[in-house]
Amino acid sequence: MNGLINPSRVFPKNNRELRELTRSRESIVKSRTQIKYRIHRILDSAGIALNKGVRDVFGKSGVHLIWGLLNRANTEDIIATLPSARVRKKADILWEILSGSLSDLQIILIKKNLEMMAHINEHIHVIDEQIIARMMEQDSIRDVEIACSIPGISVTTAVTVLAEIGDYHDFENSEKLASWAGLVPSVYQSAGKNCSGKITKNGSEHLRWILVQAAKAACRTVNTTFRKFFNRIAYRKGGNTATVALARKILCILWLC
Description:
Elements: H1 13-45, H2 60-70, H3 75-80, H4 85-88, H5 91-97, H6 104-137, H7 141-148, H8 155-165, H9 174-180, E1 185-190, E2 193-199, H10 205-218, H11 225-237, H12 239-256
């Protein structure tokens, strides 16, 4: 009544529904990642290391190689029909990779996991359509476009971050937003001295997770300020600390935009 207590942030209904969609998508994507890990383990147990020949095992070329192994197709035919000319140039490596064989049980397990992945991809596609429709209703496409201009941020990342933050005008500056997200170091006293520790991890764990994913993508970009920033921090404090620091930097830049 006297204005001595700051009110809690209450998200409007549209924003809450959008956040439910993005969080559901995150959960489904993590389930798909677990399936990918299972397929990796099966291939590794058979001595088949596809990552030596293709950058993304579950990209077009990687899936093509997997199905060639599952169908026990001729190695020469598998390589000749690869969709990527760049991967076909690695014929010597691919011959060595495809020399391994899968047992009948391993083939069945991989096929079932690939089928589950296909179903999950369909669900993700449906959720993505709902998310875009919600963003159109809220007239937030311009905000998404601005966020996507930052290296490392895709449309999905931008929508998730905006849904988790809500109205960024609620924060006076970028540092308060970073503090709300739990991406600032904790501060404590020891022997009369102020010391800083690990990040506080306050706020939304979903926001921190997606920002860390964006930071991992940004640090792999070529000739960017983000990559230089990451390398400078990683040299002194290690890769994990540098990733979190870059995630915070991205969040602060988003507020400024």
